[in-house]
Automatic annotation (TrEMBL):
The protein's name: Protein kinase domain protein
Top-rank taxon, per record: Eukaryota
Source species of the chain: Ichthyophthirius multifiliis (White spot disease agent)
Any one of the GO CC terms: perinuclear region of cytoplasm
Taxon lineage: Eukaryota, Sar, Alveolata, Ciliophora, Intramacronucleata
A GO BP annotation: nucleocytoplasmic transport
Length: 184
């Protein structure tokens, strides 16, 4: 397993809890040559401790170029998302990032932390953030839009923020970020 370069795990709609995530994270630590990781954990019970464990596992994945995490419907709150954002900062070789936090309890402070993490990922050419059905307002999307503007290598962007608390001002900030990316 230490020579593995691609790993896709589909664990949606199960009863995976933090203990299962601990085992998964332990296995990932030995995969130092991993370049592509996709983990689908939607509709489980991973909670704050589970997301913290995933985040700390990133420090061992220095060669990772593609990351896809589906964490929808897990009741992950701000602290868990902030810790995941801290872990993302270690992934300096990342070129493609796909994060799905569909219908969790994400608020603006977590979006601000996530936007700070994005600034460390200067090699990103593909970014998909699916943040639908959370509690984001203008402050959160403005922070994300500001970071997206800074991603000079970005070629593909998908930003899902359906059913949040975003106002016209937030929508305008997203539009500015997209226009700037087109001009780069």
């Amino acid at each position: 397993m230490k020579h593995m370069q691609l790993l896709h795990l589909y664990l949606d709609s199960n009863n995976v809890q933090s203990q299962g995530i601990n085992s998964l994270s332990s296995g990932l630590k030995s995969m130092k040559k991993l370049k592509s990781l996709k983990i689908l954990l939607g509709e489980n019970q991973i909670g704050e401790e589970g997301i913290r464990t995933i985040a700390t596992g990133f420090e061992h994945l220095r060669e990772l170029q593609e990351l896809s995490l589906f964490l929808g419907w897990n009741c992950i709150q701000n602290q868990g998302i902030k810790e995941l954002a801290d872990g993302l900062k270690n992934l300096r070789k990342l070129q493609s990032l796909d994060l799905n936090f569909y219908q969790n309890d994400m608020e603006d402070e977590a979006a601000v932390e996530l936007s700070t993490a994005l600034l460390h990922l200067t090699g990103l050419s593909q970014l998909q953030l699916m943040l639908n059905y959370n509690k984001l307002s203008t402050e959160g999307v403005t922070a994300l839009a500001g970071s997206i503007k800074q991603l000079k290598k970005l070629k593909k962007l998908t930003l899902g923020v359906l059913n949040n608390l975003i106002t016209d001002e937030g929508a305008l900030e997203i539009e500015k970020a997209i226009i700037l990316q087109v001009l780069l």
